[in-house]
Every structure is written in C-alpha cells, then in structure tokens.
Amino acid sequence: MAFWKKADNRKKHQDQVRQYLVEDEQLFHTYGLMIDFVALTDQRVIFVEKSWVSKRSEVVSIPYSKIEEIALLKDRRMSISNPVRISTRAKDHQLNLIKGNDSVGFYRQLSRQMMNAGG
C-alpha cells in the first residue's frame, strides 16, 4: 500500500488547485481521490469530479457554510478507498479518498471548518 500513501497532499494536486483559488484564499491541504483530488482551503472544499466512462469532468466548489452533513464511511473489509460523503441541500457528493490518506484527519479538518463557518 506504499503507492497509495504518496497520494496524500501531492505537489501535483497543490499546483492544480491553485488555478481555482481566489485572491487571499489559503490552501490548507489536498488529499488524493481514486480519480483526482480534493482540497480544503480557508473558505471552501474544492474537488474534481471525473467520469470513469467519458472525458468529462467538473470542478466542484462548496463553501463550508453550505455543507449540511458529512459522513466518514467505515468498512472493515479490504478496500482501496475510504469514502466520505458531503451533503448539501442540492446534492450528496461521495469522495473516495485513497487508502493511506488520513481520512479521519480530512473529516476532522472539514468538521472544524464547518463549525467555524456556522458561527
């Protein structure tokens, strides 16, 4: 599983996400997903959703204040990802963090940012 551990906070992901940051927005961390990456900033969560069957992809940006619920899905079986679900009023997004990433750290950081945005 050593290959997967290198996916956490990859410089390549940090460089890619910088094109989507607004002025004075601070990047906290990036995490490798099964297909791409997710980034946490001081303002929002940003991730790229790519299709397995087409070349289509979209950049999704969710301000922390718009997130209604997050869930860290735990599975004791052998798997190569740790799914995290982010729910907004409009949609549920499932992010498949690569095993070896700090999925609990991602969950805690996202929770902290949501609490800060709420009040």
From TrEMBL:
Superkingdom of the source species: Bacteria
Domain Bacterial Pleckstrin homology, first and last residues per copy: 6-72
The protein's name: Bacterial Pleckstrin homology domain-containing protein
